[in-house]
Amino acid sequence: MSKKKNELNHLAIIMDGNGRWAKKKHKPRFVGHREGMDNVERITLAANKLGIKVLTLYAFSTENWARPKEEVAYLMNLPVRFFDKFMPTLMKNNVKVNIMGYLDELPKKTYDVVQRAMAETANNTGIILNFAFNYGARKEITSAMKELGKLIESGDLNSSEITESMISEHLMTGDFGEYQDPDLLIRTSGEQRISNFLLWQLAYSELAFSDKNWPDFTASDLKEFVEEFQNRNRRFGKVDESDS
Ligand code: V07
After folding, report:
1. Where do the domains of the chain lie?
2. Residue 13: enclosing H or E segment and its boundaries?
3. Does ligand 1 come within 6 angstroms of the Cβ of 22?
4. 3-state helix, strand, coil in the chain (%, to 5)
5. What is the residue with the minimal CA distance to atom 13 of ligand 1?
6. 78 Cα: distance to centroid of ligand 1 (angstroms)
7. CATH placement of domain 10-135+180-234
8. Which phi and psi (to 5°) does residue 62 adopt?
9. pLDDT value at position 32?
10. In order along the chain (244 residues), what is the average pLDDT of each group of 10 residues?
11. Catalytic status, residue 16
12. Whose CA is nearest to atom 4 of ligand 1?
């Protein structure tokens, strides 16, 4: 029996393997990060063409501050380079930029550029390019619990009234409405783990892994993953009628 194809509204990607890519080419790590940054642009435009509504990219985790300070400094400057280089293309393609994470902890220059990018693209109506930046899922869930705790303390909420969708709304993806949860997560570079990314939101997501390093992951690779996803049988914990 032919089945209806899955809709891919929200795609999340863990862009792993930039350092490995550089090492293989006998180049310093920052060259891998720079190539990886250029690939963000190519994959965003490809995802837009495929009709994806939200693209969430794991750019920097709350654990990444532990890297050598030269590397952290280079990474913190990537948003500046990214928007210098790509803002005209993002505008032309109607891309709306969102950054989710603990932005108050960023260096001022980085903070300013991401705020400006969100403001300048706020009225765009195409794909949402959502960077997880200084993001960690347990920290995100902890923050959401604190917010609900405050509502309880102030008497605006009764603990027995807490619902799953209330928790979803208090996470950093809360503004994406029906697209809050990724339909598909892709991780590049052969590692098969979640690494504190979107723990709540990935509950029913399909998972896919590519052996390619992020700078080598092409638009045509993306298309293959999307087509494979579209033909999967998603059950969301229920039984599939065609199985019984
Ligand atoms: C980063 C390139 C992609 C692979 C992952 C590691 C290196 C784009 C951004 C970015 C982030 C926020 C923003 C605009 C661009 C970025 C970091 C690393 C930390 F508003 N690429 N990229 N940020 N890499």
Report:
1. 10-135+180-234
2. strand 10-14
3. no
4. 50, 15, 35
5. 79
6. 6
7. 3.40.1180.10
8. -65, -15
9. 98
10. 88 98 98 98 98 98 97 98 98 98 98 98 98 98 98 98 98 98 98 98 98 98 97 88 60
11. yes
12. 36
